[in-house]
Amino acid sequence: MVDPSWSRRRFLVSAAGTAGIALAAPTLAACGLQNASSTDADVGDPDAGWGGSLVSPPLPKPDVTFTTDKGEPFPVREATAGKLTMLFFGYTNCPNQCPVYLNTVARARAAIGSGPGSDPLVVFVGIDLKRDTPEALRTYLNNIDPTFVGLTGAQDIIDKASSELHFAPPVIGAPDKNGDYFVGHTAQAVAYTADNKGHRLYGYDVRRAELVHDLPRLAKGTFT
Amino acid sequence: MRSHRSVVLFATVAAALLVTLAAGCGSSSSAAGGLQVIDATVDQPPNPQQAAVRLVIRNDSATADALTGASSPLAKRATIHRTTTDAQGRTGMDMLKTLPIPAGGEVTFDPTTFHVMLEGFTKAPTVGDKIPITFTFAKAAKVTVQAKVIEPGTATEEHDMDRDHG
User: Do A107 and B89 touch (CB under 8 A)?
Assistant: First the structure.
């Protein structure tokens, strides 16, 4: 017997994937706070007992080379090969979603302490090319967790990476009279396991308890 | 009979006292004509130039009101933002000139809904600091609260504790 929530979510994610449209709208709902309340404890639900949501088929690693906040090239596939990796697109003038997510990962790492899942490679891609300078990225991440890696790249590199993940490209708004502008981005982290596939997506509002639970299992290659 | 009435009276006073104490437990609370700004907190921000404020505005009156502005002597600008998600799943923000506060209702400002955005600090906010913020309403008098700068993550992890124990 096919569990309806399993087939529905699978359909949503894979349909979004193949059609090249953003999968964020359905998955955001699945990744958010509602997920934590675990109303979907049905047998066969791939997300029962997990934070975030399963992506099936899994997401690839973007075939692009970013630049680190130290100015070094960061070919995503080579630099993250075989490592538990959390990939997120954000910006340093992001007051809410980015720090909430990054702090949650940092606090989950601290809570796990040592052993599997305690040292994920956390990469933060700055999409606001004007303000996300290497210095700004480093300051921002050092204030949260110095092990996190800040990346930047030209617009076409960021757009290519977004597209390979079926994320809508980031949008930069028009500046106001103070020169401030809004940025729109897919505020979800892709979790890649050692097989170099992105099996789970986490919303920015993932709870620490969920990551404390999930990261050690992801580090062992388990994702359902 | 008399003693029974005293017990009732005592219980009423005790309950009233508890309500007062409970109101005092929040990080900050202030009332103006039935409008309260409760639990204003700021996660210590990674970008020293800007921060988002969480809070709850409660309208205990029978009159609908609206938040029309915010200001702080410690920040160059304070604006009201709404968190948005567009049709393609991108998260972003809108600036609001006014935010309705329904009669007898409350509006929660958290990372998924609204926030007061503070920008251009005279000093980077650090855990333990208090940031005075004055809220302006269409009808009610201004309300000033002290937003407490807290360790990031602690605002939501309290709920996790509830869940873990629940």
Answer: no
